[in-house]
What does this fold into?
Amino acid sequence: MSAPRLQIIVGSTRPGRRGPLIASWLHELAVKHAGFDTETIDLAEVGLPLLDEPRPPQRGQYEHAHTRRWSEIVRAGDAYVFVVPEYNHSYNAATKNALDFLAREWVAKPVAFVGYGGVAAGARAVQALIPVVTALGMVPLAGHVHIPFVRQSITAQGRFEPAPGLAESAAGVLDELLRTTRGLAPSRPAAPVG
It folds into this structure.
């Protein structure tokens, strides 16, 4: 059996963001973990406009090429980790927009979060996202990774330097994500034909 595909999704799209640095660190950890075929997806590179599909995503009848491309990307994933900033006690708009574009593609797949920010360490963003992903039929993990005072974790060379214990926390999330992915595989709907 091939390894399930883990998609690490960088949620922030703004200039000067720290999400790609964190996602790169997590990607390295996931490769060492060796339980997944891992790829990083950057929403800034995906380039979705604000939701512009005329029909509800539950129908899977996408009018725009950018939506069809996004659907193909997400459909290829078996599990997800969203790397999300906390903005104003919640998550950012680009992450919500990316989730809202699709429906069936997310169903019965596990999701975890790496939240980052200031004193709250992205926890409020993660908590606000849990009802959203649950409504989409995803299965959020109980454990997530939280990074407080993220600016202090970026070196002068522009690399994310995790605080002590953070790598162990992330490894635990990857373990839980792999168990959950394997457990959910039989319940996932069949991919649409054509």
Observations:
- Strands lie at 5-10, 37-42, 79-85, 110-116, 139-140, 145-147.
